[in-house]
Amino acid sequence: MGTLSETWFADGYIDFELKKYTLLSYLQDIHRAFNQNKLYPQLADIIFHFNNLRAFRENKQLMEQQFPKRLTGIDLEKLMLLYEKVSADDELMQELEEIIGYALSAMNDTIRDGTEIYEFVQDKLRISPVGLVPLENTSGYLLLCDGRYSDTLVYSYHLTIFERHDEQYRGIRTEYLEAYRKDLIHTCEHIKTILLRKNNQANPAVYCVETSLVLPVNETLLPIAKRSLVRYIALNAA
């Protein structure tokens, strides 16, 4: 996947056509992945750049701090380089504003395309607890099965809670453990029994996430399943 630096729009020579070419090449790679139903890390990456651009444009003070400055002279007594800040009315700044405006619009369209895929997949997921759910369900197991109906993928999960800007966010870490052939014997309930015996646990939290869709697991199905499970656990805990 093509990548952009955090300050790609202001790096090097600032020219609208040059930056437009750089952006379109990046977006072409993103769309190529979306056409293959591969959402991650592409969707998260473009959302980061979109938010970064928007914050940069809205925060004029940040723009003045990060924007290049012109060298105007040298103070030999203080051994300091003297700079003149590029003013907000400068022609170069107007070029930057045009680049940012175009990039935000193009990125927004691409994000919308990725979001439509995300929401379609999310709507096709079925989440259900396997057996009784213990009161402590911040750690447990995620059983994942797609439309091939051939294997049940087993992951351990651990929920994390972190605070940012006076808000609490829930995250999730998963680790792939093993796969079981999906047949009459290896039902979700039987897999839970196997996990219980292997790890000497009384009643671990186990959730099954199923879909009739056939999708790339690591790039799409697993990331969406993880986020959906976080929401499911949060809603059922409320």
Task: Please provide a written account of the structure.
The protein is of the alpha+beta class and 238 residues long. Helices cover 46% and strands 25% of the residues. It contains 6 helices and 7 strands. It has helices at residues 16-35, 42-58, 60-66, 91-123, 188-199, 217-237; strands at residues 69-75, 80-85, 126-129, 139-145, 151-164, 167-181, 205-210. It has a 5-stranded mixed β-sheet. It has a two-stranded antiparallel sheet with strand order 1-2. α1 runs parallel beside α4 and α2 runs antiparallel to α4. The mean pLDDT is 86.
Question: What's a quick, concise take on this entry?
Answer:
The chain is of the alpha+beta class and 238 residues long. The chain is built from six helices and seven strands; from the N terminus they run αααββαββββαβα. The chain has helices at residues 16-35, 42-58, 60-66, 91-123, 188-199, 217-237, and strands at 69-75, 80-85, 126-129, 139-145, 151-164, 167-181, 205-210.
Strand content: 15-25%
Instruction: List how many beta strands DSSP finds.
Output: 7
Tell me roughly what share of residues is in helical segments: 40-55%
Q: Report how far the terminal alpha carbons are from each other.
A: 39 Å
H/E order of the elements?
HHHEEHEEEEHEH
Largest sheet: 5 strands, mixed
Shape assignment: elongated
Write the layout of secondary structure elements.
Layout (H helix, E strand, L loop, with lengths): L15 H20 L6 H17 L1 H7 L2 E7 L4 E6 L5 H33 L2 E4 L9 E7 L5 E14 L2 E15 L6 H12 L5 E6 L6 H21 L1
Helix pairs in contact: 1-4, 2-4
